[in-house]
Design goal:
about 450 residues, mainly alpha, two-stranded antiparallel ribbon, about 5% strand, globular
């Protein structure tokens, strides 16, 4: 067991805290593979968010200038511009990042009403409630509507994944064991309600789905822009609404870079990455400390991935396609472990530990959990749902896709898993001893 000292900013100074590497032997391998697999996942999510924002900017230009034909290299340049904004906020403006995030939340809520009210009020024609709630489209040619629904589930999953990002910021949050679970629940509830309302409104104002998909912006992958334009009948009005969506996507890239750099820093501190000594360093700026090297690595790799888009947009999409499948693979691993410990009864309550010495590998419930059978059922549902998403994340949109529309996430996910296992077996298991846990001196027996 190795002991290190670190202050609240993670800088090795006076021994305000004690960092102890702990893990049980039988779970260390699973933890390592889950966390090693998550590093490329976060790169794919970060790259996908920036790429989405960049392409929406080009599609907006196409909407306003029909004769404009976007080029792949232009998409990469705008993609790098979005990444530059994210890098600047996470480095030069890191001290005010919490205030920026608060502004993003306000913009998120106000932007919802700024979009949904014009759609409902200005749309010249709406479809019936029967068409919205009772008509199902099987555009992929799947053998049943049920299979089509599960394949289409990936759109909703893509729009809502990443709710665990707050977990990666835990070391910078006061009372994280209470605040973070509430953050995850509240953001899921808020975004779920707003997202569902937006979907219902868009379905009501979309009269001709085929024409929307065949529109210039629809062919670029953003049919919602044509829907906004058809509903408002105003190019400036639709452009303003689209700009709100673009700004929110750029803000998502800022958040993804912040959270992904923290997990790279933490895993480097655990000695689970190549060049872990460098990854685990923080740069002190006045009264803050940020994982500068981790930010540089995540940003550099994401920008390098953008070069693939110049040669082939299909190849680039293949790289970032592993986001959903690999992320849910990491979810299932951790949720299955939690369920396993629940069923074995190896997680103790704080009351049971009040008069005992707290050992390093002891699993103890925090202040936020669902006890009893309901907790078991919730964990079981989470595992089952995660497996369903994982399996259908490998399905293409249609039964017989061509090479440009094939879903290669199975190939990319398999490659990442092989790399993670190979790296861990060849090197990482020699230096990785489990996650580093920070405790107050004297609390560990």
């Amino acid at each position: 067991m190795e002991v290190k000292s670190a202050n609240d900013n993670g800088v090795e100074k006076a021994p305000l805290r004690t960092e102890i590497e702990v893990s049980s032997v039988d779970e260390r391998d699973v933890q390592a593979l889950a966390r090693l697999g998550k590093k490329p996942i976060l790169k794919a999510i970060l790259a996908g968010s920036a790429y989405l924002g960049g392409n929406m900017i080009l599609a907006l230009a196409k909407l306003n200038h029909p004769n404009y034909a976007p080029e792949l290299w232009q998409g990469t340049l705008v993609y790098w511009g979005v990444m530059a904004v994210a890098i600047s906020i996470n480095t030069a403006a890191s001290k005010i990042l919490p205030k920026i995030e608060s502004f993003i939340l306000l913009l998120h809520i106000l932007g919802f009403f700024a979009i949904i009210i014009p759609l409902v009020h200005l749309a010249p024609e709406k479809v019936s409630a029967h068409d919205v709630f009772a008509v199902f489209e099987n555009g992929g040619g799947w053998p049943s509507t049920t299979v089509s629904v599960f394949v289409g589930l990936l759109g909703s999953v893509f729009a809502t994944y990443g709710t665990d990002c707050a977990v990666h910021m835990a070391e910078e949050i006061h009372s994280a064991n209470v605040v973070i679970p509430w953050c995850m629940l509240s953001t899921t509830l808020l975004n779920g309600i707003l997202g569902f309302a937006m979907v219902i409104v868009v379905l009501f104002v979309t009269v001709d789905i085929d024409s929307v998909l065949e529109s210039p912006t629809g062919q670029l992958g953003f049919p919602f822009m044509q829907i906004f334009y058809d509903a408002t009948g105003s190019l400036p009005g639709a452009s303003t609404m689209i700009c709100i969506v673009i700004i929110m996507d750029i803000c998502a890239a800022i958040a993804f870079l912040a959270t992904s750099s923290r997990i790279v820093f933490a895993f480097g501190r655990d000695r689970g990455l190549p060049f872990w000594r460098t990854m685990a360093k923080k740069q002190v700026q006045s009264d803050t400390a940020i994982p500068m090297y981790a930010i540089i690595v995540m940003a550099s790799v994401s920008c390098a991935i953008g070069l693939i888009n110049i040669g082939s947009a299909t190849a680039f999409n293949d790289v970032i396609s592993l986001g959903v499948s690999s992320l849910y693979a990491s979810y299932v691993l951790t949720e299955a472990l939690l369920l396993w410990h629940r069923l074995r009864g190896t997680i103790r309550s704080p009351a049971q530990m009040s008069h005992e010495t707290w050992h390093a590998n002891e699993l103890v419930w925090g202040p936020f959990h669902v006890p009893g059978i309901w907790g078991v059922l919730l964990n079981g549902f989470a595992v089952g749902y995660g497996i369903i998403v994982f399996v259908f994340s490998f399905f293409p949109q249609t039964v017989r896709p061509d090479a440009a529309h094939m879903n290669f996430s199975c190939l990319m996910t398999g490659a990442i898993m092989l790399f993670a296992v190979g790296y861990y077996v060849a090197y990482a298991r020699r230096v990785y001893k489990g996650p580093v846990v920070e405790v107050v001196p004297g609390e560990v027996g």
